[in-house]
Amino acid sequence: MNIGEAAARSGVSAKMIRHYEAIGLLAAARGANGYRVYAARDVAVLRFIRHARDLGFPLEDVRRLLALWQDHGRASAEVKRLALAHVVALESKAESLQRMAASLRHLAAHCQGDQRPDCPILDDLARKE
Predict the structure, then answer these.
(1) Is the pLDDT score of 34 beyond 90?
(2) Do 47 and 89 fall within a single domain?
(3) Number of separate domains in the chain
(4) Which of 8, 9, 36, 116 has the most C-beta neighbours closer than 10 Å?
(5) What pLDDT, in 10s, does the model give residues 40-56?
(6) Residue 74 pLDDT greater than 90, yes or no
């Protein structure tokens, strides 16, 4: 199948498919005409990558997970270690986002939101530390 068909079947855009090829996550065959040719296995790899990215895994972890998925002699302990490390990173990011939201909520509560130019939100953004 061509890149458009692979994109439609995998849910990954043609642009991202090219990117994944450029960084070595996917290696599509080339036809005699030089065009990329994708097999069902390539679509499965693209779906795997898309799902891992949907879960927020960074590309380097996707690369490791993909290698583990393709290695049928793998130890699931390594997969679990990667997943739990990602959970810790996600939880840390969530805490950071909650702190940012609380800070903005506080600033917005102290902004009059009227026609006057005084604005604690802008004052805080301009604050020098």
Answers:
(1) no
(2) no
(3) 2
(4) 36
(5) 999 999 999 999 999 99
(6) yes
- Which pLDDT score, from 0 to 100, does residue 93 have? 97
pLDDT digits (tens, 9 = 90+) for 1-33: 999 999 999 999 999 999 999 999 999 899 888
CA distances from 52 to 21, 25, 45, 58, 105 (A): 16, 12, 11, 8, 32
Q: Is 65 domain-assigned?
A: no
- Supply the DSSP string of 89-125, one letter for each residue: HHHHHHHHHHHHHHHHHHHHHT---SSSS--HHHHHH
Q: Check whether residue 51 and residue 79 sit in a common domain.
A: no
Tokens of 49: 């990558």
Q: Which domain CATH number covers 51?
A: 1.10.1660.10
86 has pLDDT over 90: yes
Which residue shows structure tokens 């009059």? 112
The domain of 23 spans: 1-55
Do 85 and 49 reside in the same domain of the chain? no
The total number of residues shown for the chain amounts to: 129
Spatial distance between the Cα atoms of 41 and 56, rounded to a whole number of angstroms: 23
Position 122 in a domain? yes
